[in-house]
Structure formats: structure tokens, C-alpha cells
Design a protein that fits this description.
Blueprint lengths: L9 H9 L4 E7 L2 E6 L4 H10 L5 E9 L7 E9 L4 E9 L5 E3 L8 H12 L2 E3 L30
Parallel strand pairs: 2-5, 6-7
Antiparallel strand pairs: 1-2, 3-4, 4-5
């Protein structure tokens, strides 16, 4: 549900008009809009944002580990409308046990390497990704180094 504080924002209203059940929250802070989207609706909402709202550029994909809270993870997408010089942050909350979300590579090809990096460092799986494998850590690396419960001292021998 779109918060009342965002009822004046055109992009937020457009997403709510497209799929009101997709919006689970949001805020406007320091001149930047953040929308929280239900994970199962991320692809449809992003297609709408790209093709109807002109957010043609995916600037980055990252994640946040909120351990020990649940839902533990947030997948975070930064979008840019070059035409309107407007930015939008889209977040999806994901459960800590086997976190996964649909890939956005079909919407933005640039999501490919960003999603691989998030998978490699946080362990979030992106369904339907064309080549989901490690991009920074060695293939035989165990664990995900940016998780808050990852041992910072390394393995004990």
C-alpha cells in the first residue's frame, strides 16, 4: 500500500495505478523516492517503469543484510530516467532462508553482472538468470562474504 506521504509523487502514483498490490511501502527522503515492491511482482513493475515511465537505465543492483531481523535481506535496484533526470530506488524484502527473486536481465541487460555480484557476495539467487555463477570470488569459495554472519576472521584451522 502506498503511504499517504507519497500521494503527491507522480512516479509512486503511477506504480500504484499499474499494480496497487505490488507496492508494500515507500518513502521520499532527501529528494529521492524509494518504493518497496512485493518480490513476486518485481519483473512486471520494472517493465512498467522502463517502458511506461521511461526509467531506461538500471544504475546498480545491491543488497542489504538486516541479520538477525526477518525478512533478512533487501534486494535494492537504482533506476534512472534520463529523459526526466529522475532517480528511483526500488527495494524488495527477502527471507533469510534461501533468498531468491526473479532476475531482471530480461528487462535490463545490465542487470546481468550486478545480479551475479549480489549472488556472489550475499547468496541471493536470481531465478531465470542466464549465467548465475560467481563473478568475484573463486568458484570453490564457500559462503558469502558480505553476509553479517560470515566469519570475519576467516576459517579456523
Amino acid at each position: 500500500m502506498l503511504p499517504d506521504s507519497l500521494r503527491e509523487n507522480a512516479a509512486a502514483l503511477a506504480v500504484e495505478g499499474f499494480d496497487s498490490a505490488a507496492v508494500t511501502g515507500g518513502k521520499f527522503d532527501r529528494g529521492e523516492l524509494t518504493l518497496e515492491i512485493a518480490p513476486e511482482r518485481i519483473v512486471a513493475v520494472c517493465e512498467f517503469l522502463k517502458y511506461e515511465q521511461k526509467f531506461i537505465r538500471l544504475s546498480s543492483v545491491t543488497a542489504v543484510d538486516r541479520y538477525p531481523a526477518e525478512p533478512r535481506f533487501e534486494a535494492v535496484y537504482h533506476l534512472h530516467s534520463v529523459e526526466r533526470n529522475q532517480r528511483l530506488r526500488v527495494k524488495c524484502r527477502l527471507q533469510g532462508q534461501d533468498p531468491e527473486i526473479d532476475s531482471l536481465t530480461a528487462v535490463w541487460r545490465s542487470a546481468n553482472w550486478y545480479e551475479r555480484e549480489v549472488f556472489d557476495l550475499f547468496g541471493i539467487r536470481f531465478r531465470n538468470h542466464p549465467n548465475l555463477k560467481r563473478i568475484m570470488m573463486p568458484e570453490d569459495w564457500e559462503g558469502y562474504p558480505l553476509r553479517k554472519d560470515y566469519p570475519v576472521t576467516g576459517p579456523r584451522v
